[in-house]
Amino acid sequence: MSAGTSNPMQSHQSAAAATHQPLLSVRGVKTYYGNIIALKGVDMDVNEGEIVTLIGANGAGKSTLMMTIFGNPRAREGTITYAGRDITKMPTHDIARLSIAQSPEGRRIFPRMTVFENLQMGASINGLAHFDQDLERVCTLFPRLKERLQQRGGTLSGGEQQMLAIARALMSRPKLLLLDEPSLGLAPLIVKQIFTIIKELNEKDGMTVFLVEQNAYHALKLAHRGYVMVTGNITLSGTGKELLENPQVRAAYLEGGHH
Amino acid sequence: MNAPSITTSSAQDTAVPSRFNLAAALKDAFITALIALGLSIPILSYKTEQNGSDLFLASRWRLVAIFCAIVFVLRVLEHAFLATRAARKALPDPHQATEPVHAEPSAYQKVSRFAIPMFLGVAVSFPILVYLVQGGLNESRYWVDLGILILTYVMLGWGLNIVVGLAGLLDLGYVAFYAVGAYSYALLSTTFGLSFWICLPLAGILAAFWGMILGFPVLRLRGDYLAIVTLAFGEIIRLVLINWVDLTNGGAGISSIPRASFFGLPFTAGEGGFADTFGLEFHGMHRMIFLYYLILALALLTNFVTMRLRRLPIGRAWEALREDEIACRSLGINTTNTKLTAFAIGAMFGGFAGSFFAVRQGFVSPESFNFLESAIILAIVVLGGMGSQIGVAIAAIVLVGGPEMLRNLTFLKAVFGEGFDPNEYRLLLFGMGMVAMMVWRPRGLISEREPSVILKERKAISGSLVKEGHG
Ligand SMILES: Nc1ncnc2c1ncn2[C@@H]1O[C@H](COP(=O)(O)OP(=O)(O)O)[C@@H](O)[C@H]1O
Ligand SMILES: [Mg+2]
């Protein structure tokens, strides 16, 4: 749907960009809440076709980073580039139009609207152009939603709401999908389902995924690369495997036993 | 008064469904009546009466007794009502099932199937019905007038519903746009001699413009803060109307505003008038009936536009904005534009209603646009169940028509004595109605949101089974 693909010049540019520079790159980003600093200069890259995960303790600033990428709150210093464009100062709703989609912390589905209407909202960026097709697709991914299209979002169970949040994000056909703690508060079986779906989206559709997780074991197993955040700083990075084997990571995030 | 006891008793009743404990109900009603007595001693039992220059107390124990009796009876009825309802509800909760529930049609669907055609039918044939029942044009004047009044509020309620019910922006100054519409017509027609049909869209545009002016500064506000700023805005407009004497003639208002014509035919007795052209005998009621259909058309237009917009992206965006602003933004919705259009379109209908008001009265003054008006319109939207079109219409009928009805209940005089004037009790009854509503239907008459898209294969789940705000 992006104008870029129909423009040969630009698509050439972005193809070139893909080889040289990451799809999303965060450089020296500092974010404040009032006077309190939440991100203290974060550097991070997400390459096209990757699953990148960000793990860290509660209050480390993971959600803040995800929201900062979306321009709400705005980074006070540093730059955020997406597909070669500086999006640091772009309004949130314009960023959403660059084929980045987000399933935010706390799901934030529309509780009084039906599942169907929630999905319509997700597709509103491209004016419902391929709505039926996309609806079909998310219904195959999440059969539970299909049974509940006319049910109101607020009456879904937690796991179903999470599925709806992801499905709604998928309705805009994003190239980059940001997920904030999709496994939060869900039964192990549903967590597994959701992670399988994320993997499927990445492998079959080539979707790039940036995954914020507390569930470090699952996230690192799934991800190509990972970052570890501690109080507003990225302290470690590496491939998923490397991080899983890293003694520091094991001590801090895995010994609790998520397996 | 002791509402908690109601809930506990109904909870007990759930366990033993069919039994209605009369003794307990009578005892509770007696206690309630005692409380009512206690309250009415300082409020009702004595009245100061003036006889010449002397002031003395007259006791009204009869009134107190009647009042307590009413409270007693109502309380017993309430218990009976709750007991039967609890018995009906003592079925297993379908929502404990994890499978999708194929529920019966929702309350909205039930109401809409019968109520909407009925309301529409009554509204369209109202002047004829009244003419037949009252047996003459002169006799039906009062009723048609009341119909016009109610429809004006229905329209205002529907207009405000866009802002409050759909977009979730609590607006306490809606009357400002009503005023802008009224003064637009008044000034444009008296100064430039423009006809109503030209002024109507102009008034709408001007009101929409003022809606945007209000919208800009309040873009970042929500809830309480928004309510306070909009309240102030309403007052500012009223004060400007009072103080900008050169333009608005101040508190004295603008009079002799031209009356509406029937598409160019004036409602006058002479040649070329409406009655003359159509070969009717001239009657003042022709104009009234025309006004009735005019406001009916305007109200239906408001409703039609709202219903259409709800199905379009902009309407969906309004509702999504009400639900979650942050989620809206991250879905690519420009919340600034969404809010401004809600304010502007809501204001536009307020402006239409305002110019109708001016053309009906032939006189406007700042008096008519005080805060109480805003409060009534908001009460209509809230009591109707925010966002429900039919609920708003019913609430307008009840809130505007109800007090008017009291005037006609002459038997009240027989009960309460000759000096009883129901009008004095209007606000009291208004308040009692509100309290009753908040107890029984805290989310408004029709609290359910009707989906904007109803899928063909009905897998509808009844919203009424799911208490909102609990999950
Ligand atoms: N809206 C806010 N206002 C002020 N401080 C906030 C706000 N949101 C988050 N914070 C603070 O920023 C820090 C990072 O929070 P967050 O990004 O939510 O952490 P995480 O998602 O890693 O658990 C925390 O110390 C939190 O208290
Ligand atoms: Mg978080």
UniProtKB/TrEMBL annotation, chain B:
The chain crosses the membrane at residues 29-46, 58-77, 114-134, 146-164, 169-188, 194-213, 225-245, 289-306, 340-363, 375-402. It is a multi-pass membrane protein. The lineage of its organism: Bacteria, Pseudomonadati, Pseudomonadota, Alphaproteobacteria, Hyphomicrobiales. It comes from Microvirga alba. GO terms for molecular function: branched-chain amino acid transmembrane transporter activity. InterPro entries: ABC_transp_permease (IPR001851), LivHM_N (IPR021807), LivM-like (IPR043428). It holds the Pfam family DUF3382. PANTHER family: HIGH-AFFINITY BRANCHED-CHAIN AMINO ACID TRANSPORT SYSTEM PERMEASE (PTHR30482), HIGH-AFFINITY BRANCHED-CHAIN AMINO ACID TRANSPORT SYSTEM PERMEASE PROTEIN LIVM (PTHR30482:SF20). This is High-affinity branched-chain amino acid ABC transporter permease LivM. Its main location: membrane. It is found in: Cell membrane. It comes from the Bacteria. The gene is livM. One of its GO terms (cellular component) is plasma membrane.
